[in-house]
Structure formats: structure tokens, C-alpha cells
Amino acid sequence: MLFGSAIAALVGGVLLFAAIGWVVWRESVATETAYAGSLAASLGQRAEGIFVDTRDLLAGFDRSDAPRCSADHLRTLQQAAVSRPYIRAIGYWQASERRCGVGFLPPEGLKPARADRIYDTGVIAWWPNKSTEVGGVQLFLMRYGDHDVAIDPRLLLDLGPLQQRRAGLWVEKLRLAASPWDAELPVPDAVSAGVTVDRGNGVVVSRFSRNDLLPIDVIAVEPLDSVWNRHASTLIAGAAFGLVLVALWFLLILRYSRHQLSLATELRRAVAGEHIRVQYQPVVELATGHCIGAEVLARWTRDDGEVMRPDVFIALAEEAGFIQDVTLAVMRIAVRDLTQLRREFPGIAVNLNLAPADLQDERVGTTLASSLAAAGLPPDAIKLEITERALVNSNTSRALIRDFRRRGHEVAVDDFGTGYSSLSYLQTFELDVLKIDKSFVDAIGKEAATSQVIVHVIEMARSLGLATVAEGVETAEQERWLQEHRVAFGQGYYYSKPLDLEGYVEFLRRRRTA
Ligand SMILES: Nc1nc2c(ncn2[C@@H]2O[C@H](COP(=O)(O)O[C@H]3[C@@H](O)[C@H](n4cnc5c(=O)[nH]c(N)nc54)O[C@@H]3COP(=O)(O)O)[C@@H](O)[C@H]2O)c(=O)[nH]1
After folding, report:
1. Hey, CA dihedral for 307, 309, 314, 320, is it positive or negative?
2. What count of Cα atoms within 13 Å lies in the side-chain half-sphere of residue 313?
3. Which bin fits 106, alpha (ψ -120 to 50), beta or left (φ > 0)?
4. Tens digit of each residue's pLDDT (9 = 90 or more) over 107-121
5. DSSP of 297-323
6. Where are the domains of the chain?
């Protein structure tokens, strides 16, 4: 059991750790992807803003009343150039002659052969090339009306301090600027709009495109590695948190396993030391009110006085592999009590619960036979209750049930309806009684969906020739309904809670005199 728990703890721990790691990594990649996606958009918006602002600036110069090339005119141009770091020079032109200007250009200005583009908006553009080169930098020229500007394209993209990022600016699909200047970048046509995570190349690529003033494309490329750099602290914190959780999980499983192990050891001792007690819950014939027997239910009080619920300790004994010892301990007490009961109530029988493991070999069957023979009791003094889950797919259990019946024991299927057994499946077993589960009895007289199911269960039992016992009868209304539907027997708090032997004897006496 401890080994099983250790394996469960290990698998659980690894899964938990992996799940936390996955969530943290996914969140980091999502944050980074969103950030990388907004990078191209913000760079593109800035570049577009610069072009629009420059066009508006040139339009403003044209509208100005200041006499051209006057001190006022040149001061205005100077102020505009100084406040915009990407503007290298501004010139005033008449036809194809530069009359005056400000900035770092010869007075005659730059005169590249012909414009690369003339737009409907009135903007004329020259892409950076040899003839626009000044001081080793090829400038982008833009003219609107009678003024033009020379723009340093290197300053159109501002990527901040992170060196791993790359970005490029295209106007009319012609590369105008990049950061770093010689960066290797995919061309716009090769990249879809928005954000693409390219795991093959380990990068997040984002593209921003607009055509408000000039058709621009900005592509930003960010290595996925940088996710680790930027989110290392989150990932480390996540890993530490995961480790703490896994450690807590291990401790919890260890404590639980230790507890279960010591509980199982204590239960095993209690079974060997004959400290298991039983109680009897009467089964009543609904037509006459006679008590025809009882279900024998195991009880265990721990050394410290704690009363354990049977569904807990029965499951524990099943898991720890000694449920047959519990069954046999209960059986020995039942046989002993029956010899006393039968002296006063000759026909009385008790129902013994069998666990699935009891139907895997002959141990319980042969011990039961020898115990009854030794006590001089007939086999029909002990009836057997088998839960639906014990019927699951076993030829051994089918054969053992047949043996029990041949020896003279009545066999009941318990908790029927809580599992998945179908009518046709039930037919493959030799059975005598069907116990209708308490959940169906609870639904009697209510509008619950299950309230109709009990009718089908009763019909089904009838069609299979099985007697019926309704479990968990708690009210007179339920009893009436069951009588009307010709259910043979009832068991439940309405008649009696489980009783010690003395209490059960009293119950039988009262019923006899009633
Ligand atoms: N393999 C074995 N299983 C056993 C043995 N002894 C008990 N059990 C199983 O444990 C489960 C819980 O049993 P218990 O707490 O004893 O509860 C029984 C009744 O007290 C309860 N019941 C009966 N009538 C009513 C009622 O009207 N209202 C209400 N709230 N509870 C009621 O039902 C339990 C009996 O159910 P069932 O066995 O399905 O007839 C239980 O599954 C036991 O089977 C053992 O020795 N071996």
C-alpha cells in the first residue's frame, strides 16, 4: 500500500510540477507574444506619425505669410528642424531651385535625378540612395508644396536598449530603415499581418501595415529565447512554488499513507483479536409485518474509542487485501449468534455481506460450510448479499455464486441500480433476491426523475423471477407504496436501525407478540 502511495505521490508530484511549469511558461510566452505583437504596431504608428507630422509641417510652411527666405521664415524652419531629431534639413524651393533652407546640407540642397513616388496627396518622395547620401548616411527626402525635408531614416525606428530585437521599416515594400541597420529580416510579403510564433526559427514575428499617408510596413522580430531572459524571475518563482507544492503533496501523501497503514494494521489486529462487533438490521415481510431475518453489519471501535464507519474500514480492508478475514470474522459471530437466535426463533436467517474479493476463491464458501456444519445450522440460515460491483465480469464469481446456491444459500444482489448492470447482464448470474437501493426508495412520492426508475427495477426483478427487498425504508408512505407495488420485503429505519444482538432479540419478541 505504501509503495502504491509512493508511486501515486511521485506521479502526482511530477504531474503537478509539470502542470505549474507549463502554466508559468505558457503565461510568459503569451505575455511576451502580446508584447512582441504590440512592438511592430507601436514602431509602425511612430513612423507613420513622423510622416504625417512632416507633411503637416511642410503644409504649414506653405501657408505661412512670412516672406520666403526672410529671417522669420528661416527661424520657423530652424525651430521645426531642431525639435525633430530625425530631420537633417529643411529647404524652400522655387521650381527646381533650392532658394534657402536650414540644416546640414549644402545651400543648393540635394538634387537626385527624379522622384521615386508622387502621391495624390501631394507628397513627393525620394528613397535613400547614393545621390541622397550626406556624411555617410543616405537620407529620405520628402517634399510637399514649396518645402522639403531630409529625414535620417536610422532615427525612424527606436527599439530601445534590447539588442536581441530586430525591426525594419518598408515604404512601398522598399526597405527604408532597420534596426540594427544591417539586420536580417523577412520581407513584408513573406510575413502575415499580426503576430506569428515561428518555433522553427525560435522567434516571434509581428507585422504592422498601414496606408494612410505612405504605404508602410513594419516588421519586428523577437527571439523566443528572450522570453526566458525577461521572465526568468517568474519562471524561477513558479518552479520554486511548484517544488513547495510538490513537497507539500509528498508530505500529505506520506502522512495519509502512514495513517492508512497504521489504521490497516490496527484493523488487522482487531480482526485477529476478534474485536469486530456486528449489528443486525431487521428485514420485514411487507404483507404481514413479520421479521424474517436481518442484515448483519460489521462494526469496529478503534483502540482510542473512535467508532469507524463500515464503508471506511471495509474499503480499507479491501485495499489492504484482508477483506476475507473481515468477512470470516463477521460470519463467525453471525453463526454463533444464529445458534442462540434459532433456539427462540427457529426459521430466522441473517444476511451476510460479501465483498468482491470474497468471490475470487473458495475460502469464504468452504469456511462458511464447515462453520455451519460445526454449529449444526442449515445453509439457509445464512443468506448472502453481493454488491453489483462484485458481479463485474468474472466467471469465477459466477461459478462461486452457483456453488453457494447449490449448497442451499439464498443469494441477493445488493445496492442494485447504483452500478451499470443491465437486465441481460444480471440474467447471466443465478440469483434469488434483488435489493432495491435506498436512493430509489428515497425518490418515492417525489417528483424526482428517479421516482419512476424504481417501477422499472421492480418489473425487471419480477421478470427475472427475483424476490425484492426495498432498502432504506424510512416512512409509512414509502411502505404503503412498496406494498401497493407488491415488493416482498423492506428494511430501513422505519422498522429499526441496526441493533446489537440483545436489541434484535427484543425486536423479534415485540414483532411476535404484536
Ligand atoms: N463487505 C461488507 N460490507 C459491509 C459489512 N458491514 C457493513 N458493510 C457495508 O458498509 C456500508 C455501510 O454500512 P452501515 O453504515 O452499516 O449502513 C447500513 C445501514 O445502517 C444503512 N441503512 C439501512 N437502512 C437505512 C435507512 O433507512 N436510512 C439510512 N440513512 N441508512 C440506512 O444502510 C447500510 C446497509 O446498506 P446495504 O449493505 O446496502 O444494505 C454498506 O454498504 C454495507 O453493506 C460487512 O460485514 N461486509
Report:
1. negative
2. 26
3. beta
4. 888 888 788 889 988
5. EEEEE-TTSPEEPHHHHHHHHHHHT-H
6. 1-251, 320-494
Closest atom of ligand 1 to CA, residue 414: 39
For the record, the C-alpha cell of 279 comes out as 449489528
Q: What span, in angstroms and rounded, lies between the C-alpha atoms of 270 and 301?
A: 9
Q: Which residue matches cell numbers 540612395?
A: 129
- In the structure grid, which three cell numbers stand for residue 432, read together? 434469488
Q: Is residue 295 in contact with ligand 1, taking CB distance under 6 Å?
A: yes
**Secondary structure of residue 133 in the 3-state scheme:** strand
311 lines ligand 1 (CB under 6 A): yes
Residue 275 near residue 303, CB atoms below 8 Å: no
- Ligand 1 centroid–CA 364 distance in Å is 20
Q: What are phi and psi of 248, to 5 degrees?
A: -60, -40
Cα 65 to the chain's mean position, in Å? 71
Distance CA 405, CA 411 (A): 7
Contact predicate 64/33, CB 8 Å: no
Tell which residue, 72, 69, 119, 134, has the closest CA to residue 98. 69
Q: What does pTM read for this prediction? A: 0.60
CATH topology assigned to domain 320-494: TIM Barrel (3.20.20)
Q: Which atom of ligand 1 is nearest to the CA of 358?
A: 1
**Separation of alpha carbons 109 and 150, rounded Å:** 9
Q: Give the cell for residue 184.
A: 536580417
Phi-psi region of 102 (alpha: psi -120 to 50; beta: other; left: phi over 0): beta
> What are 8-54's pLDDT values in tens digits?
767 777 787 788 778 877 887 777 777 776 788 888 999 999 999 99
Under 8 Å between Cβ of 222 and 203: yes
| Ligand 1 nearest-atom number relative to CA 279 | 16
Q: Tell which one of 353, 439, 494 to mutate to probe ligand 1, the residue whose CB is within 8 A of the most ligand atoms.
A: 353
Nearest to 176 by CA among 137, 144, 146: 137
* 8 A C-beta contact, residue 239 and residue 245: no
CA 279, CA 266: separation in Å to the nearest integer? 21
Q: Ligand 1 centroid to 81 CA: how many Å?
A: 92
ipTM above 0.90, yes or no: yes
Backbone angles phi, psi at 182, to 5 degrees: -105, 25
Distance between CA atoms of residues 349 and 382, nearest Å: 6
CA distances from 21 to 236, 252, 485 (A): 9, 21, 59
- 123 strand-pairing partners: 144
The 10s digit of each residue's pLDDT in 367-403 is 999 999 999 999 999 999 998 878 875 788 899 999 9
For residue 435, give the 3-state DSSP assignment.
strand
Residue with cell 421492480: 458
pLDDT less than 70: residues of the chain: 1-6, 9, 37, 161-163, 226-228, 230, 393, 417-423, 447-451, 513-514
